[in-house]
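Structure request: MacB-like core domain-containing protein, Lachnobacterium bovis DSM 14045.
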Amino acid sequence: MKALKKTKYTTILLILLYCIMPIITILTIQHISITDTLSKMENGSFGISQTNYKIKTKNPVNSIIKSCKQQSTNIAVICSSTNIDEKVRYIYFNNIYATFPMERGRFFKPSDFTPNNKVCVIGKNLEKNTQKKNGNLYYSYKGTNYKVLGIIGYEKKTICDSYIYLNMTSEKIDADIFTFDFFKTAFSFKDIATRQSELLSSLKSNGLNPEDFSGGTCFSESIMPKLYSIRWLSMLVVACFLCILLTSIRWINQQKNAVCICRICGARKTDILCNLVFRYICITILSFIISGTYCHIIYPSYFISFFKGFFICIGFMFVVLAISIFKLFKSPLEEVIR
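Returned structure:
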């Protein structure tokens, strides 16, 4: 009975650790991303390269967005209001964008970019101009009420504190200068020149005649802020990894008696192996559901980071699981019984 209780407690502990691990990873990735964003705010470019095009075509937004959707890599497009007294930016991106420090709510997601979806993200200085209706905040701009998705805010002043970001797909824009920001894309080895060429080709094929206004590759990767900010969070991640490692090994060792009985009764090793792996997968799935639900509610904008953190952890732990099971099967029955 004591052995069963110990196994039960170890299983619960393992589930909790698997729930905590992706959350810590999200916080780490989020903190690094925010630090990187803050260091790049003055430049106005958050990707690895940007290109500014002057597009004189009337109502070019639909064609621009269509061109961005045709890109196989991560890209964003921004344009500013022609009124220099306004700090308004129209935005669209096909996959990811910079991670802003949010005082409340969230930044845009690709699913937000639909026509007639009047939503915005505002800087913290504009919060005083919002109105609350039916539990939601609204910001009025040019006589139109926009639902506020989130409020950008950091403990110190930033240039974004007085900006308003609007969904480009739902607006009529009179500007003719558009900034295209190229972001890193996983599993893509295209260089910037190739990506710029593909974008230009898409813009032209969609009836636009862009003129190169300015732009260039941003080589500053904000290495020092990243290294400085990652230090203590990395220690938390490593500590959590070690806890999961030790707990997983302990969980496997606690299965010795059950494995021993199965081996004595003539059960095939493959059946025993499948049973152990199945139990471990059940623990993993339960942890995924719990932590995934939590992260989707609390950190909806960083759900990709959750997947990264969870599956990196899972990959590492299944290697540990394989080694532990291999050692368990190699143990003589006499040693296991003892």
